């Protein structure tokens, strides 16, 4: 599984855990909703800037988000 | 300080701690040396794929690298 696909899976899981829609997350992170959909489907490679922007409304630290990805990677 | 500049500072510090040149890190991470120089000068926004590629030869987890950035951010 590619890094982008893992990232998308983790992003969707955390977003759904927080009971946020893509629309709400887009608004809170000041990103475009379609971009969030593309990220969740593993179609884009997010920068660390995007990761940091997403983590604020998701209420976790970027290092914690990466920790979730590492569980799937290593 | 922008996220890219913080990233570059942290990257340079860790690379120098490991006594690696930009050339050696480029070879080991399969990235271009000029790109590493641009990253270290805060001129590029790395993707998480690039972060993960850099962390292998630097001998730390991406979440640990992000933890270093968080120290400067928050």
UniProtKB/TrEMBL annotation, chains A, B:
Domain HTH cro/C1-type: 11-65
Pfam families: HTH_3
Recorded GO MF terms: DNA binding; DNA-binding transcription factor activity
InterPro entries, sorted: Cro/C1-type_HTH (IPR001387), Lambda_DNA-bd_dom_sf (IPR010982), TransReg_Diox_bact_type (IPR050807)
Keyword DNA-binding among UniProt keywords: yes
CDD domains: HTH_XRE
A cellular component term, taken from the record's GO annotations: cytosol
Gene3D superfamilies, sorted: lambda repressor-like DNA-binding domains (1.10.260.40)
Alphabetical keyword list: DNA-binding
Matching SMART domains: HTH_XRE
Protein name: XRE family transcriptional regulator
């Amino acid at each position: 599984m590619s890094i982008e696909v893992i990232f998308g899976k983790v992003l969707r899981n955390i977003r759904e855990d927080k009971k946020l829609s893509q629309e709400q997350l887009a608004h809170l992170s000041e990103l475009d909703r379609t971009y969030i959909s593309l990220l969740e489907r593993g179609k884009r490679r997010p920068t660390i800037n995007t990761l940091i922007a997403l983590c604020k409304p998701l209420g976790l630290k970027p290092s914690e988000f990466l920790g979730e990805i590492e569980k799937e990677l290593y």
